[in-house]
Amino acid sequence: MKIQLEVQDHSKCHMNERCNKYEMCPINLVHKIISGKWKILILWYLMPNPLRFSDLRRKLPDVTQKMLTQQLRSLESHNLVYRKVYPVVPPKVEYGLTECGEKLIPVLESMYSYGVDYLQDNSLDSLKLDK
């Protein structure tokens, strides 16, 4: 079922209250779907083409196998990522963006551009980033 959303003035949006028209504020919904330590990076790396699990592990060396599996399953359950199993030996599994996931590409590209601008405007030494 597709819900038609109306663009609302941010000043009328109260994050601590649910939207009257929907069960959840749309921005809060998106936050819940893509929040997670690795989800945005997984989506970013899947943008150009599908990848195997091992390829994602190489691109995200700090993620554990268990965590990567959990994050991929969550993205899959929200229809952002698909999992394709090939009937070969040894088993081959690829992950890629669904049509729904591809709709996030402009958002991810904007986040990348913002990061570039932020790095140019701010001293890296002054940033206190969680590792």
Automatic annotation (TrEMBL):
<dbReference type="GO" id="GO:0003677">
    <property type="term" value="F:DNA binding"/>
</dbReference>
<protein>
    <submittedName>
        <fullName>HxlR-like helix-turn-helix family protein</fullName>
    </submittedName>
</protein>
<keyword id="KW-0805">Transcription regulation</keyword>
<dbReference type="InterPro" id="IPR036388">
    <property type="entry name" value="WH-like_DNA-bd_sf"/>
</dbReference>
<dbReference type="InterPro" id="IPR002577">
    <property type="entry name" value="HTH_HxlR"/>
</dbReference>
<keyword id="KW-0238">DNA-binding</keyword>
<dbReference type="Pfam" id="PF01638">
    <property type="entry name" value="HxlR"/>
</dbReference>
<feature type="domain" description="HTH hxlR-type">
    <location>
        <begin position="25"/>
        <end position="123"/>
    </location>
</feature>
<keyword id="KW-0804">Transcription</keyword>
<dbReference type="InterPro" id="IPR036390">
    <property type="entry name" value="WH_DNA-bd_sf"/>
</dbReference>
<dbReference type="InterPro" id="IPR011991">
    <property type="entry name" value="ArsR-like_HTH"/>
</dbReference>
